[in-house]
């Protein structure tokens, strides 16, 4: 086992139970949320670390909690924030990381098949161009205040 892989595996042991490591990709601090108990959509957020020396790309996501799961981002158009599907996925730089966060890139659950309540756990599979599938259990956290918001409003 390479020293880098050994160190990465050791890091996983230190982080929370929502950390997953597979083929040089480490997903940390994952959580999902919905706006209300009757919401028809929700989203998941996380930090994705690429411990390889090759760029990778998150190309898809899947979960049985929704009819459709897509990779989305927010873009500003004429002063209005709009959500849009990322057709080409998200680049995870070699030796770097990519944050999926509120107001930015995220995994979007559309057509929820059941109610998601605080404390529930859901299974989510991320598909990477090189690393393949990474399946993890993600907690529903409706109380979290995300300190990594991609934008703030100012008057």
Note down, in words, how this protein is organized.
The chain is mainly beta. The protein has 1 helix and 11 strands; from the N terminus they run H-E-E-E-E-E-E-E-E-E-E-E. The strands form 2 sheets. Strands 1, 2, 3, 5, 6, 8 and 9 form a 7-stranded antiparallel β-sheet that branches. It has a 4-stranded antiparallel β-sheet with strand order 7-4-10-11, with no helix packed on it. Strand 2 (25-34) and strand 3 (41-50) form a beta hairpin. The longest helix is centred in the N-terminal third of the chain and has 12 residues, at 3-14. The chain is globular, with a radius of gyration of 16 Å. The relative contact order is 0.24.
Compute the CA-based radius of gyration: 16 Å
Shape: globular
Mean pLDDT figure: 85
User: Which class best fits the helix and strand makeup?
Assistant: mainly beta
What amount of the residues lies in strands? Answer: over 45%
Distance between the termini: 54 Å
């Amino acid at each position: 086992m390479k020293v880098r892989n050994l160190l990465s595996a050791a890091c996983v042991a230190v982080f929370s139970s929502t950390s997953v490591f597979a083929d040089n990709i480490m997903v940390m601090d994952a959580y999902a949320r919905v706006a209300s108990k009757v919401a028809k959509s929700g989203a998941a957020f996380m930090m994705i670390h690429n411990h390889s020396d090759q760029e990778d790309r998150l190309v898809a996501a899947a979960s049985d909690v929704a009819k459709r799961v897509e990779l989305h981002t927010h873009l500003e158009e004429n002063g209005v924030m709009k959500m849009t599907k990322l057709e080409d996925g998200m680049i995870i730089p070699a030796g770097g990381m990519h944050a999926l966060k509120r107001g930015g890139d995220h995994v979007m659950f559309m057509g929820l098949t059941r109610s998601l309540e605080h404390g529930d756990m859901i299974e989510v599979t991320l598909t990477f161009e090189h690393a393949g599938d990474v399946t993890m259990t993600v907690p529903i956290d409706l109380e979290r205040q995300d300190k990594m918001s991609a934008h703030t409003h100012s008057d």
